[in-house]
Amino acid sequence: MTDTTRTDPPAEPPTARAVPGDVGPDGPARQDVPALEARGLVKTFGPIRAVDGVDLSLEPGRIYGLLGPNGSGKTTLIRLLVGLARPTSGEATVLGRRVPSRELLARIGYMPQADGIYPELSVWENIRFFAGLYGSFDRERLLETLRVVELDGRAGTPVLQLSGGMRRRLSLACALVHRPPIVVLDEPTVGIDPALRVQFWAHFRSLSAGGATLLVSSHVMDEADRCDELLFIRAGRVIARGSGAEVRRRAGTDNLEEAFLRFAGDGTETAA
Amino acid sequence: MSVRRVTALVRRIVAQFRRDRRTLALIFVVPIVLSALLGWVLRDQQATPVRLGIVNDAGAAGARIAQVVIATRGGPAADAALVDVPAGTITDAAARSELEDDRLDVVLVIPADAVSGLATGQGVHLVVMTQGANAPTEGGEVGQVQQLLVSAIASAVPGSPGAPRIEHATVYGTANADPFDALSPFFVGFFVYFLVFILTGISFLRERVGGTLERLLATPVTKGEIVLGYTLGFGIFATLQVIVLMAFTLMRVDVPAIGPFGAFTIGLAVPSAGSPLLAFLVALLLAIGAVSLGIFISTFARTEFQILQFIPIVIVPQGLLSGIFWRIETLPGPLQPVARALPLTYAADGLREIMIQGRGLSASGVQLDLAVLVVIAALFVVLAAATIRREVA
User: Fold this and answer.
1) CATH code, domain with B82
2) Inter-chain contact B211–A85, Cβ cutoff 8 Å?
3) Average model confidence (pLDDT) for chain B?
4) Is residue B91 part of a domain?
């Protein structure tokens, strides 16, 4: 395995931070078309460069972890990739097609950081509503999706009466209701208990086994080892990429947080 | 445009309402309570310059009275007078059509028996006629004319004629109608507009801040489908509300005394001269505009409280300028075009024409009101869709 491809933008001035942890994608792509791709993606809000030149190419069927502290640009990058925000410059493609595209939205499952479900409605009404927006109302399929997140016994319960963890599960179910090949989850495990987190990751793994590509953001480093590949993001830039083992080896430490700080090249900042 | 996606949106909104009992109460109970209160509380409005026409059926004696009235308050050139007599003496038929078409506010009819009661000390008999479509305004106008008549009679009739006996007649309805009879069309329109605006504004704000709009926009739904789904979903409740409000306004139910409670009446029993169905259509068009206005305004608010702050900006001025309290022609110059750009103005006008004046779809005034309401609703739909920030249509 050789480090030939660099993932930082080539147009950066030489004074820009070095990217020591850049290990590149492992080997040639398994398919011709990447599941998600970004080229020179930049998003500015006034003087703030929330996403500052991101190039990446994600292969189908794998789980990618997008790791970085709060405010590092994870959510903005995700919104650019899904097509919910327009980049200041650069472009993103999903399954070889340029975003934003309404046709692509039907093939992306997106779970926002906020739950994004209707509290007055029941579990069933919520999931049926989003299924209706995807134009795919199949009672059996909806029930099965609820079974996966273990909410099938609570279909008639109003969301207001659900615990926080149950709401996260419903939110996940709403993102998966149309069986999307691309699944983008913005901090799906924030605020849920360890047992449920284990369940979530088991489910992510089964989605990936079924051929789906997952991009999962988190600021919790101990979730990193459940991903096939990690993307460390800081100040809107991807500062390192590789499997958990590779990243540790390159950073020369067993601790991923320490590895992150090493790649960040700035020991005074903490990675959440 | 996918019917299935729009249906999903509509169903969701209906389900949300069914769960929210208090909001349902807001839709149906609040307008009833408020309109009943206002109906009881309302008093006459201030006077505005009155355009007076005179019909003389009393020969020479009547002509003398007419002359003095015109002389006292000027002719067509007198613009400072409280009472203006632009048309002078006219025929009975002309007087009616001038009143109907809003070219005159009040017509003084000097009947054939005007001075015949003088001999028996009964005073001069006069009739003032108004349209009968806007009782509060007309009450003030009749008051102005009465003052003028008392002083005019004193100088026109030799001797001491005493106070004239003045009857009040109207073209539409009855002169002694409750002020609420004439105001009811306005309140139907106002409450529909107000409540639909508040409900949509807050619901859509919750979509924006609760993350559901973000999620909605990550599905293949189009902006047009969202606005249409909201319009239809809220349209269902606006329709029910208009039905309740209309029924309450037009009908009355006497509830007999039960136990310790005395007998009371529900409903105002305002007679509608025209088609309730047409009036309903006007109110519904107004409501559709209000749905989109609510979506549009929700862009500029971050909390429910900030939606409420738009009431004095968006709702109250519309009520004041809609022509129900002051005729649009009597508003200060710069305010007139503003009033003519507001949907409530046309809804109030249309409802008044239909419910009080009994006009139908063939009347040009009703046609204009409907057409303008459609255009304004369409404009708001475009504005609402424009505020849904999205990278794909």
Assistant:
1) 3.40.1710.10
2) no
3) 78
4) yes
